[in-house]
Design goal:
globular; alpha+beta; two-stranded antiparallel ribbon; 3 helices
Length: 138
């Protein structure tokens, strides 16, 4: 006997396996007063991909600028991109700060502002506008 649940049409659907891999571009703004050094960037390049499997995701590409970090990643359909971003902000910051004792006064290395885009990567103007809006507090 098949396991059927009522669908929108009322006809039901088979509740078999669902395989989904969604791609997101997530931009996070740094809250540090100092620029990241090359070794610091390398450490982030290790920390971030290590967080993504929890969300059934992988890192596709990562870009770190003086103002923000942009992560192009996959995630399972049961996880929102905001969930992924919040985990990078919280857990990623904790791990990064543990490696840099001079940052002990920081709670996080990122601001709470999150830019998420699916589909094509964000343009430089979109990211610059995001940084500008987040910096002005609007």
């Amino acid at each position: 006997r098949e396991n059927r649940s009522p669908g929108a049409s009322g006809l039901g659907y088979n509740t078999g396996m669902v395989i989904s891999e969604l791609e997101y571009h997530i931009a996070l703004i740094f809250s540090l007063d100092e620029p990241l050094t090359a070794p610091m960037k390398s450490q982030l390049a290790i920390i971030v991909p290590d967080i993504l499997p929890y969300f059934k995701g992988t890192l596709l590409k990562m870009k770190i600028t003086p103002d923000y970090m942009c992560v192009h990643c996959t995630a399972g359909a049961e996880h929102s991109p905001v969930e992924v971003a919040e985990e990078i902000i919280c857990a990623g910051s904790r791990r990064f700060i543990r490696l840099h004792k001079h940052l002990d006064g920081y709670d996080r290395i990122f601001k709470n502002d999150i830019y998420v885009k699916s589909g094509k990567k964000p343009t430089k103007k979109q990211l610059d506008d995001f940084v500008s809006l987040a910096s002005s507090g609007i």
